[in-house]
Each structure stands twice: as structure tokens, then as C-alpha cells.
Amino acid sequence: MNGFVYDIPVKVYFGENQLGHLGEELGKYGKRVLLTYGGGSIKRIGLYDRIIAELKKGGFEVFELSGIEPNPRIESVRRGVRICKEEKIDVLLAVGGGSTIDATKFMAAGACVEHDPWDFLNEKRAPIEKALPIVTVLTLAATGSEMDCGGVISNPETHDKIGRLAPAMLPKVSFLDPTLTYTVSPYQTACGAVDMLSHIIEVYFNMEQDLYMLDCFMEGMMKTIVKYAPIAMKEPENYEARANLMWTSSWAINGFVNGGKQQAWSCHPMEHELSAIYDITHGLGLAILTPRWMEYCLDERTVSKYVQFGVNVFGIRADKEPMAIAHESIERLSEFLFDTLQLKSTFTEVGIKAEDFPVMARKACAGGILPGFKPLEQKDIEKIFEMCL
Amino acid sequence: MNGFVYDIPVKVYFGENQLGHLGEELGKYGKRVLLTYGGGSIKRIGLYDRIIAELKKGGFEVFELSGIEPNPRIESVRRGVRICKEEKIDVLLAVGGGSTIDATKFMAAGACVEHDPWDFLNEKRAPIEKALPIVTVLTLAATGSEMDCGGVISNPETHDKIGRLAPAMLPKVSFLDPTLTYTVSPYQTACGAVDMLSHIIEVYFNMEQDLYMLDCFMEGMMKTIVKYAPIAMKEPENYEARANLMWTSSWAINGFVNGGKQQAWSCHPMEHELSAIYDITHGLGLAILTPRWMEYCLDERTVSKYVQFGVNVFGIRADKEPMAIAHESIERLSEFLFDTLQLKSTFTEVGIKAEDFPVMARKACAGGILPGFKPLEQKDIEKIFEMCL
Fold it and tell me: How many angstroms away from the CA of A81 is the closest CA of chain B?
């Protein structure tokens, strides 16, 4: 059991009708605001107008950067950095899902340095010591970017999709209004649910002995996702379902449940290589990979974790053989992903081709070993990819 | 389901050997430190010397206030305020359990005003807008004061024991080293466990519909207490048990699990009247009261919460009659408190006399109604007290 430092000073306004606090929070940092968003869905749901009205009321000078894409690209980040510098922006307001927030984090950091922001992500790993303050208004429960200090940026020129964490990029304030996710489609709701489920699985499937209390929390969040994702898909305006998913998205990845666990992640790095080449939805890639990865990692050493998962999350009876419970756990998870959430279950269905496996596998382990629950070499990753066909 | 604001910017160093960060954290606030502690147990375990060594290394000027009593008294707070003002203290370092930290919070607030600190607590309810910064080193897992903004102070002259919350009193940094609780006696370990269990029960037993995810977290923490308190009593140097209890103590009452629930507490206000007169250990008073209060509040309207509690915390089979499960839940809790934790189970055993019931009951409901899970008038509280005899 290792020690750790807990330090998550994000302030969260949770619930309906909290946007009235937007001006008061932004005003702590200045008057020149860069409003960032994606493809315009915030205009369709009337959120853009509400935010502009709040900003006008507060006397802010507003600059805009729109068109941030899913799997956000470094070019969008560069555009944002230019505006921050040219317009002497005081604070960034990201309105959207994880892609918008991730890109905004690197704009905020890029505004404080002279070099190209891609240098934060490529092999230079330029230090991220400062960033302009960030406030977020979340419209999709998925990545948890609203309460963590990380982001993932794609570079289509190099087929790279790279993540980076830096405390300086932690949002100061996030507004979480579950009603803003009412218009999220059943498919995107499902993909978001898988993303947060995977964030938990990456930490939970771990043979390091750590705090039982945190395992209980992770099981509670996984039960919450299993209970409410299908409800939110069937009843998009079910507040209870949307609220549970939204708060779970933040706590799945804000670092709290890690405690002192050090283990690296497995499915996320593998998935990033898929979506770097194929631009598929992150949660869909994770859904296809996760049960196969679980199957591949199951052995006598790891079986106890699968038993704990199956019994405590899916309510499987504890009085069977451990290996039988483990296999049933994987089946129950697969049923949840592919039947209940109705996600496609194979690479073939989503057009991912075997000819790309070697290069994707090599990149996922950086030509060496992908450490994690079970350390994986290129040939292991290729085998997991083959199981996904 | 109500909205809420989440804002808990306490930084926590968790684990062994983290005290090396003490100087770096205190140094953010200045060089003049008031070190506060209780009856000297921190000297017996060598903690005092370790802290003084760290402070010396950091070049701090150290002032001391010792002798803070369990159920800390306003006179100790006044002493601390005087030192803060006379010595121009920059930052307070509380080393101890909840009593030391609670008292230190009101010293920090009192140092910023001209009036008597008791005015924060008596009917004047003087505003608490500012406080000197507070850093804590925790030596007892119980009250959660290390990660919340509240405290409870006793005034023996008036037989009052009054609590108050104020964001300004939130510690900046808390050091949680489970090994510092190795010398806590089995009895105090049990009382601490009951205190944190009660903090959760006060929120969990609530008929307001709120986030399922948070109910899961509360159940996880209650399971953690039920699992590890007996282990820590039998094996005082079991790190796993001490660590789980310590981190649970903070999360039981830092406000996170409340979500949007507004309901007032019940057992704590009743217990404060007991310990205001009898000076018994807070956790012991709570242990005696809680199962009787649960019994008194059980009816057709509330039974579902007892069922949820019994099934999810004590693993009672869900296929029985709800009322039967509810009664079994109370029995299982009583067994845990009085058999497993070996706490005294009646007022008679601890010397609390029926002649004091009317005055204690009247004070607990301030002569009107004690709102909460079930609103209680003086006569209800007297009945609950009678059940404790």
C-alpha cells in the first residue's frame, strides 16, 4: 500500500440553473474570455445564448473559438493559443464535452509559452508549469476532463493521439448541469458510459493491495453506470439517470479512486491507436477491446479480481468456482456492452482492418512493453486485436 | 433531487513518511507557527520531536499551545486567540484528533476578529468570514475535522456544546499518516469508528431522493468501518485497517456524500447534550443512541431505507419482509456496536440519569422541533433517551 497526495481543488456547481454563478466565477480571473466549443450543438440546445447572456450581464469581453472536433486536433489548439496571445485572454471558458475541454487545456498551457503546443505532447514533452485559468460547462458525461488535469490531442499528420497530465491545466470551476445532456443521443450516451466504465476498470483491475474503501467506491460507480446508462438511453430526459452518470464521469477519473495505486493503464493506450488511425468514437473502441483484454489477462494470478468484480458489480453468486465466476463476469460485461448498450462488438463491424494491427500494436507499447494489469508486448496486443475481429 | 456546490480544496498527504512536506506547506503562509495539541500523547509517540525537527529545519518560529481537552473548551480557544494576536501568528499547525483541530479552527477565526470567540457559537452567531490558515497532522480517525470546515466547542459554564461550520475554517493541508494511530486504544478506536459511522448514517437515513452513486459510496464506507474497526482493535499496528479507517473518517463528513441532501442531523445534536453535561466520549454516546433512534423512527414511510442499509451494508438477504429486514438491520448494528466493538450499551452503565432527560431533550430540540430523518419534539427525544436506559 503506497502513500499518495490528494489535491483536487476544482469547484463544481452541480444541478440545474447554476449558470447564474458563471459571471461571478469568471470575474475572479479577469474580463477577457475565450469561449471555446465544438460543432455548434450548444447553439441548437440554446446553451450558447444563455452563456452569452450571462457574459454580457457580467460585462465580459468575449472571443470565440468554435469547431473543436471530436478527437480534438492540435491545429485547433494552435488556433486557440493564437487568440489567447493576440487578444490577451484572461480566462478560457470551455463549453462542451471532453474534446472541447481537453483542447482548451492545451490552449491555456500553450498561451503561457513561446513554443508550439504540440511540443507538450511529442517526444520533447515540454514542461507544463503554467496555464491560463479554465472554467468549463459540461455537455457530455464521459471523459471526466471537467475534474481532472489531463487531455488527449490528435495529430492527423503523424497519426498520433497522445495524452498528458499537468496540474496547471486543472479547471478552476466546472458547471455540471445534467439537463444539458438531455439531447445526447443514445449512441453517444452509451459511448460515454463505456468511457467512464473503462476509466474505473483501468484502476480497479490491479493486483496491488490498496484501500478497500476505494474498491467499494469503484464498485459503486460501476453499479451506477450499469443501472443508469440504459435508462438514459431509453429516457433521455430522465434527470436521475443523467445526474448519476454526470457525477460519476467526474469521479471515475479525477484521481480520487487511485489512492496509492501506481499501475499504468492498458485499454486506453490500445484504443488511442485505433482512433488515431480510424477516428472512431473512443467509447466504442473501448467497448470492443475491454472484454477481450479481460479474457487475455485472466489467469490464476489475476482471477481473484475478476471474482470481486463479478460478485460486487454484477451480483454473481460467490459460491461458485473462481474461474467460473471470472468467465461469467466477462460474459455479463459483454452483454451489458453489446446487448444492453447496443454497441457494435467487433473490429470487422466498424471497419478496423487486420493489416493495421502490427503498426497499432507497436505504437501502443512504444515498441517495448505496455505496462499495466498484465504487461503486454506487441505480440500480446496483436493477439487481443485478433480476438476483436 | 437538489443541486449543490462541491468545493473541498483541502490538500491531503496520505501515508507514512509524508511529514517531510510539512515545511514546504507551512512556508506558503509565513514563518510564525502556532503549534496546538492535546494532552501530550504526541510526545509519547515521538511525533512532537519529529514535528519540531521539521519546523526547525524550515526555520520557523514556533509558539505552542498544549492541553486542548477532549470535548474542547472555549477557554482553550481563547488562549489560542490571545497567542495568535500577541505573537502575530501566520499559520496554525494542529497536531492531534478532532478536538485539537476543532479548537484550532476557532482560534484561527478568533484571531481575525475583536470579539470573544464564544460569540461565534452562542446566540449571536457572529459571522466567520476570515481565519488564519490551518494545517493539520491527524492522530485519530474519527471526527473528519481534518477535511471539513466545522468544529464543536464546549462551554462548561453554560453546559453548552455547540457546533458551527464556516468555509474559512477549512484546513489548507492535512497530513494523514495511519501509523500515527497505532497507539490509539481499542476503546478509542471503537469510539472513533462509531463517530464516522454516525456521520454517514445522519446523511444516509434520509427519504429525500438523491444520487444513487452517493448512496453506494456511503454503503462502501459503512462496510469499510464494519470490516476494519474490529481488526484495528485486535491488531493496533495493522496498516491496512488503520489506513482504511483514516481515509474513511475524512470522506464520511467532508460534504461529498451529501450531494443535494438538505436534511438536518439527529443523533449528533442529541449526543451533544449528553456530553455537554456528562463529558462522555462522543462516539460512546452515539453508539448508545443510534440503534434506539433507528427503532423509534422506523415506520411504513421509512422502512425502505432500513432495508437498503441492511442488505447493502450487512448483507442481509433481500427476500424477506421489509419490516423483518429493518428489524434485523437494527439488531446487526447493535451487535456490531455492543458485541464486536465492546461498547457499553446503556445510559445506566455510563451513569447518565433519567432526571436530566427533560433538560437535555429540551436543549436538543431548542424547545421546538429537532428536524431530521423524523422530526422530533422534546417528548420524542425523551422517549428515545428512555429506550437507552
Answer: 29
β-pairing, B369-370 with A134-138? unpaired
Same domain, B32 and B97: yes
The strand ranges marked E within chain B are: 4-6, 11-14, 32-36, 61-65, 91-96, 134-138, 150-155, 160-165, 173-176, 369-370, 376-377
Confidence of residue B209 (pLDDT cuts 50, 70, 90): confident
- For residue A21 the three cell numbers come to 454563478
What pLDDT is attached to residue A232? 98
Q: Give the chain B residue whose CA is nearest to the CA of A9.
A: B9
| Residue pair A107/A80 in contact by the 8 Å Cβ criterion | yes
- Per-residue pLDDT tens for B20-51? 999 999 999 999 999 999 988 999 999 999 99
Does residue B53 sit in the same domain as residue B159? yes
Domain closes at, from A153, A180, A207: A180
**A315 found inside a domain:** yes
Looking at CA atoms only, how far is residue B349 from chain A in angstroms?
A: 34
Structural domain total, chain B: 2
Rg (CA), chain B: 21
Give A264's DSSP letter: P
Shortest CA distance from A247: residue in chain B:
B213
pTM exceeds 0.90:
yes
Contact assessment for residue B204 and residue B333, using Cβ atoms and an 8 Å cutoff: no
| % of chain B beyond a pLDDT of 70 | 100
Q: Is residue B252 part of a domain?
A: yes
Provide the Cα torsion A141, A143, A146, A149; round to 10°.
170
Q: Which of A18, A208, A212 to mutate to test the interface with B (most CBs of B within 10 A)?
A: A212
